[in-house]
Automatic annotation (TrEMBL):
Signal peptide: none annotated. It is found in: Periplasm. This is Heparinase II/III family protein. It comes from Mesorhizobium prunaredense. Residues 313-561 form the Heparinase II/III-like C-terminal domain. Pfam families: Hepar_II_III_C. GO terms for molecular function: lyase activity. One of its GO terms (cellular component) is periplasmic space. Keywords: Lyase, Periplasm, Signal.
Length: 574
């Protein structure tokens, strides 16, 4: 109960800080402070930084005809400017005002696409350029827009007349001054880091005194040292954050080089740590493991980033600072969450998935977490974040961490994770021909007085994954049969995998004749239930899950095994 009280206190402290931050932001956007964002207009853009994000010239054509496919949501404007219509989808609004879609105009490479880009930028300047309010001027969105305008300035300014050229540079300079004023007070997390990245891009790409570049470089270095962990993960523990931040840091490193400036050691060190971390979270088919906010993977995006990885050899197996473990041999990959939740300030998309794991063999995923539907309805997010949506154990169908459902909190912070495991000790148990780990978490101690301990071992050249799940009380006291010790261990099966039962009543996971897995458990008869896989490229899909259900007071420990075999070794039935 004391832990819950501390979490609640921290939550309301964060609410108060965010309320004050937003109040100060409104004040700074008012007429009293707005004069601070005016000033000298740069004469030109010195350099257009590269953009590593994938581009599609077909999207440029769609935008030309008034169809805007942004953030998984299509809006048809009917001939109006997209900045003049009201769209309820906040993700679409942020994507529109972030201007990353300019890269599609660059990919089109036509005068028509450049003219359309210029017209849309002109619309934004006219409608929102002097009205510092709303989604358009959220600091995180402003940072994206500053980077995008700089990266694609050559397209926007192609064939531009002098009045537009000056208006573009004047607006860009105003946004940079605004972002510089807001960056230090932004909430913790990747948006704040991106603001520092945007200001470094600006100091390199526009005429500026040397002191401006030194200040931007120093602030960027401090933020990188604080947000990028020693093993290359991000403080949010979200694998997607690693990919997104690298997509900005790699062009920034190149921009420093192109301007003959020395990049900060923190930038070089962060990239050197984050590239192996990205490979750590990657399955052999190129997708990222579905933990803490990760949804569907666009494989080409990762491949584009990893072309800049000069490290050789296999990915690391141990990420203690990020709180993950990896087992890998014989074409089989197991990735597990073995860390406590991130700090409440950066937990808005974090999951209650402690000790969950994913198993892939070759390019097939067998055991997965449900992941999130990145662009789907917000009401499904709590389901995707719950412990039951992960391949791990739940007690009394309760998540191992709590989420805020207060409307007041949600309006200010979203839905942060406000409780969960405090201590997650983990140790590797590798031996000759065996990779493994043993970990436990205390997320259920406060409510049910139980610890969950999990041991995984991958052996026999990747053909056997042996698991042990144990429930125990602190001090190893006997578990009481009090009606609050019902345990469910779940193994969510990827929807592309067939789940059959063979003649020996064993569960068989099959994708093709050459790669089949058999699930067995010695203490509890496994059952099959319906499930949902949220992280499909086309949205949520129906799937199934293997379930081990028991009372901890009767069965405190279960041993289960996934064994790779050939389908010819057994005859299977539906």
């Amino acid at each position: 109960m004391a832990i819950a009280a501390v979490s609640t206190t921290r939550l309301w402290t964060l609410v108060a800080k965010e309320f004050w931050r937003k109040t100060r932001r409104r004040l700074r956007a008012g007429p009293i402070h707005r004069w601070r964002y005016s000033g000298r207009t740069p004469e030109r853009v010195l350099i257009a930084p590269p953009d590593l994000r994938l581009a599609d010239r077909q999207i440029a054509l769609e935008i030309y005809y008034g169809r805007y496919p942004l953030s998984g949501h299509l809006v048809e404007t009917g001939g109006k400017s997209p900045f003049q219509i009201a769209v309820a989808n906040p993700g679409w609004q942020k994507a529109l005002h972030g201007f990353r879609w300019l890269r599609h105009m660059r990919a089109a490479g036509t005068e028509l696409a450049a003219a359309n880009a210029r017209a849309l930028v002109s619309d934004w300047i006219t409608i929102h350029g002097s009205n510092i309010s709303g989604v358009a001027w959220e600091p995180g969105t402003t940072a994206k827009r500053v980077i995008a305008w700089l990266q694609h300035s050559s397209v926007v300014l192609q064939g531009a007349e002098f009045p537009f050229y000056r208006a573009f540079l004047k607006s860009l300079a105003m946004q940079i001054r605004y972002l510089r004023a807001m960056a230090r007070e932004m909430p913790d997390g990747k948006d704040r880091l991106r603001a520092r990245i945007a200001l470094a891009f600006a100091a390199l790409s526009l005429p500026a005194p040397a002191s401006a570049l030194r200040g931007a470089t120093r602030n960027l270095a401090e933020e990188l040292d604080r947000q990028i962990l020693p093993d290359g993960g991000h403080i949010s523990r979200n694998p997607m954050a690693v990919l997104e931040i690298l997509a900005d840091l790699l062009p920034l490193r190149q921009t420093y080089a192109n301007q003959a400036e020395t990049p900060p050691a923190a930038l070089m060190g962060a990239i050197d740590r984050m590239l192996p971390a990205l490979r750590f979270f990657r399955h052999q088919d190129g997708s990222l493991a579905r933990f803490n906010g990760m949804g569907a993977t666009i494989h080409n995006r990762i491949a584009t980033i990893l072309r800049h990885d000069d490290t050789a050899g296999a990915p690391l197996l141990h990420a203690p600072h990020s709180g993950y473990e990896r087992l890998s041999m014989g074409g089989v990959t197991v990735i597990a969450d073995t860390g406590p939740p991130p700090r409440i300030e950066v937990s808005n998309v974090a999951h209650a998935g402690c000790l969950s794991f994913e198993l892939s063999s070759g390019r097939r995923h067998y055991v997965v977490n449900a992941g999130v539907d990145t662009y789907g309805a917000a009401e499904f997010r709590p389901l995707a974040r719950a412990t039951a949506a992960h391949s791990t154990a739940t007690i009394n169908d309760t998540s191992s961490a709590r989420f805020s459902h207060s409307l007041r909190v949600n309006d200010l912070l979203g839905t942060p994770l406000i409780g969960g495991p405090q201590h997650v000790p983990c140790k590797r148990t590798d031996q000759q021909g065996i990779q493994g780990f043993l970990a436990r978490h205390d997320g259920y101690v406060a409510r049910f007085g139980l610890l969950h301990e999990r041991e995984l071992k991958l052996s026999t050249n990747g053909n056997v994954l042996a698991g042990r799940d144990r429930l125990l009380r602190p001090g190893n006291a006997a578990i009481r049969n009090n009606g609050r010790d019902f345990v469910t261990v779940r193994f969510h099966i990827h929807p592309d995998i067939g789940l059959l039962q063979d003649e020996h009543d064993r569960l068989v996971l099959t994708a093709d004749e050459s790669d089949t897995w058999v699930f067995t458990c010695t203490e509890v008869a496994p059952e099959v239930e319906e499930s949902i896989y949220f992280a499909g490229l086309g949205g949520p899909r129906r799937s199934r899950q293997i379930v081990l259900a028991f009372k901890a007071s009767q069965v405190s420990e279960v041993h289960w095994q996934l064994t790779r075999t050939a389908i010819a070794d057994h005859s299977a039935k539906s």
